[in-house]
Every structure is written in structure tokens, then in C-alpha cells.
Amino acid sequence: SAVISQKPSRDICQRGTSLTIQCQVDSQVTMMFWYRQQPGQSLTLIATANQGSEATYESGFVIDKFPISRPNLTFSTLTVSNMSPEDSSIYLCSVGGQTDRTDTQYFGPGTRLTVL
Amino acid sequence: SQKIEQNSEALNIQEGKTATLTCNYTNYSPAYLQWYRQDPGRGPVFLLLIRENEKEKRKERLKVTFDTTLKQSLFHITASQPADSATYLCALGDSGNTPLVFGKGTRLSVIA
């Protein structure tokens, strides 16, 4: 299985500022995914980040608001830009099962963001 | 569009009983289905994966069934314990390289 860490684990931010969330994996993976989970809701995919190419965003999410970097096979960042209270969520990164050659997807512990 | 429904938002059960959670889906033919446990404020933790050609899979006190004709998966926790109290999510997928589609989850409470 993959071990995934995220930083920060939580943050409280002011409206209009930006926060960059880091995701580190203990092994090389091709695909990384960023999800958002708003209070009381299920997970919604923000984008898919493939190393060496631009991230692919889902409907309703744009690069200017959620820029993603994927500099290598073990690391990715998601930035939440120009934040508003509606961005208060748990942000999660996940990876495909590249390490054990299964389809299992593993998740990081999440970043709990509160925007005031 | 794809739709996943988990039978109830919340389920209360007495300690020692078997908890059964349901996941139904439409407009999708997934290659596999995964079940996750999620505790408040934390990321989902993988529990079990079952493929379209598998009927049943077990892991300790957990059992998952997958009926592609009914488009339904059942998730059972036998001899439930208060520590099993959490939200359980089902998710459908095609491969490890494609994102999962999640249900809204069922919040299970096991009462001592």
C-alpha cells in the first residue's frame, strides 16, 4: 500500500488569501487525484494530476482557482486561490495503486481548511 | 450521468449484531467497487476492493458482495463493535489510473 502525507493538516485562512497544500507519497505513482469534501458531503473530484503534463480539471473547477503542480512522481501541490468561505472543506489527495499493482486507491489524511 | 446511492444516511445498530450497508448504482458498469471507512475530519481508509467478476470478498469481520445484474453491493460488518462507528463510503472505478466515483456514505453508529 501507499503511504501518503499532506501538509498542512489544517489551517484557518482569511478571505482573499491563497493556501498551498502539499501531498507526498512514499513511492512513485503515475496518477494523483485531488478531491474536495465539503461539510456533510461526499468526495468531489477537483482534478487529475499526471506527472509531466497539465492537470485535468473536472467541470466546475478551473486552473486559475485551483492551480496544481506535479513536479515528480512522488509529490504534488494544490493551491486554493483567492479563498472565500465557500472553499471551507477537507481537501484530499489520493493515488492509484501503482505500488502494489492493484486498482486500490489510497488517500492522504486530508487538509481541513476553514476560510473566515 | 453516473449515480451512486447508499441506502441510508445513518444506521444505528446494537453491539454484536451484523451491520449491512447497501450501495446501488446506475448508468455505470464499473470494473470494481471499493469500500472505505472515514472518521470525522480524516481521509478515507481503504477497506476492501471487489471486482466485477467476483461475487464475494471477505476480510476478518468484513464481507462485501457485488451483484452486477442488480447493480448493487452489500457491505457487512459482523459482530459489530462501538469502534466500528464511522462513515462508510462506496466508490466505483475502472482502474487505478482513473478517479473514483463516490457515494455519499452511510454513518454507522454501533451502540454498546
Low-confidence regions of chain A = none
State the share of residues found in helices of chain B, binned by percent.
under 10%
Quick one: how many beta strands of chain B? 11
Number of helical regions of chain B: 0
C-alpha termini separation of chain B: 41 Å
Query: Globular, elongated, flat, extended or rod-shaped: what is the shape of chain A?
Result: globular
Q: Helical content of chain A, roughly?
A: under 10%
Order of helices and strands of chain B: EEEEEEEEEEE
Structural class of chain B: mainly beta
Query: Which segments of chain B are poorly predicted (pLDDT under 50) over 5 or more consecutive residues?
Result: none
Mean pLDDT across the residues of chain B is 92
Shape of chain B: globular
Question: What this model shows, in words?
Answer:
The complex is a heterodimer of chains A (116) and B (112). Helices cover 0% and strands 49% of the residues of chain A. The mean pLDDT of chain A is 91. Chain A has strands spanning 4-7, 10-13, 19-25, 31-37, 43-50, 56-57, 68-72, 75-80, 89-95, 106-107, 111-115. In chain A, the strands form 2 sheets. In chain A, strands 2, 4, 5, 6, 9, 10 and 11 form a 7-stranded mixed β-sheet that branches. Chain A is globular, with a radius of gyration of 13 Å. By secondary structure, chain A is an all-beta fold. Chain B is globular and about 40 Å long. With 112 residues, chain B is mainly β. In chain B, strand 4 and strand 5 form a beta hairpin. In chain B, strands 2, 4, 5, 9, 10 and 11 form a 6-stranded mixed β-sheet that branches. Chains A and B meet through strand 4, strand 5, strand 9 and strand 10 of A and strand 4, strand 5 and strand 9 of B.
